[in-house]
Design a protein that fits this description.
With about 260 residues, the chain is α/β, with parallel strands linked by helices. It contains 8 helices and 7 strands, in the order αβαβαβαβαβαβααβ. It has one domain: NAD(P)-binding Rossmann-like Domain (Rossmann fold, 3-Layer(aba) Sandwich). The longest helix has 29 residues. It is globular.
């Protein structure tokens, strides 16, 4: 992890060790997608620990419920809503459930799929499904959050990109659809920031490198991850707890914290 990322993580840990009243997140409604495992699950737990009322979405009902139970047992406020972020109907249902908890103040788009396959074997179905979940899902959720945030006069959005979608970083074979989807998420975040600025809505993209998740292990068992889901979650909490306006539209690349070989 870079020194700047380590600073953000330390800030998040320091905030969580203090009074919840120090958190912008405390008492606010936060929607977290992809919350059944990996970065999304870690973020949901970290956001709840900061005092937020977290509304969690994922397709895996059982895994999502298990994460929600862990949050609740720790004294947090968590509402699981099984949903496919690539489905407009499911996203509408998710944000209707969030509205019952209160005005949506923040959104973290962490839902993603990754199918590692050579480019000439990337079927139209694999391509479409990857972009549907990763890019269209982020678009649908950002759009759904935009209206209540605009009406409230403020809102904070963090999207999850990837180093796979950052120009000039090392790319790996078999990830064409995934890479393109993450380039799109970065561009989407920039435009949400542009259109949100007059309404007090900020948006930042976080683009991690190799994170120790089940998705990465399935896609590339030989790749040695240098980040944990908790590392990324710490940064997301620090960002949401901070005034995002000066950096709105930015993409933050997270490089491995492994020492050189």
């Amino acid at each position: 992890m870079s020194s700047s990322t380590g600073g953000f993580a330390a800030q998040a840990r320091g905030l969580r060790s203090g009074d919840d009243r120090r958190h912008w997140l405390a008492g606010r409604v936060v929607v977290v997608t992809g919350a059944s495992r990996g970065i999304g699950a870690a973020t949901a737990q970290a956001v709840a620990a900061a005092g937020a009322r977290v509304v969690m979405a994922a397709r895996d009902r059982d895994a999502l419920g298990a994460v929600a139970e862990r949050i609740q047992h720790a004294g947090g406020d968590a509402t699981p809503v099984p949903a496919d972020v690539g489905s407009p109907g499911d996203v509408a249902r998710l944000f209707a459930a969030a509205a019952e908890a209160g005005t949506v103040a923040a959104l973290v788009c962490a839902a993603a799929v990754l199918t590692a396959v050579p480019f000439d074997q990337t079927t139209p179905e694999i391509w479409a499904e990857t972009l549907r979940v990763n890019l269209t899902g982020s678009y649908l959720c950002c759009r759904a959050a935009f209206t209540p945030m605009r009406q409230a006069g403020e809102g904070r959005i963090v999207t999850l990109g990837s180093l796979s979608g950052v120009y000039g970083t090392e790319k790996f074979p078999g990830l064409a659809a995934y890479n393109v989807s993450k380039y799109g998420v970065i561009g989407l975040t920039e435009m949400v920031a542009v259109e949100g600025k007059p309404h007090g809505i900020s948006a930042i993209c976080v683009s991690p490198g190799a994170v120790d998740t089940e998705m990465l292990r399935r896609a590339n068992p030989d790749l040695r991850p240098g980040l944990t889901p908790g590392d990324v979650a710490d940064l997301v909490v620090a960002l949401l707890d901070s005034p995002l306006t000066p950096a709105s539209g930015a993409n933050i690349p997270l490089f491995s914290n492994l020492p050189p070989e």
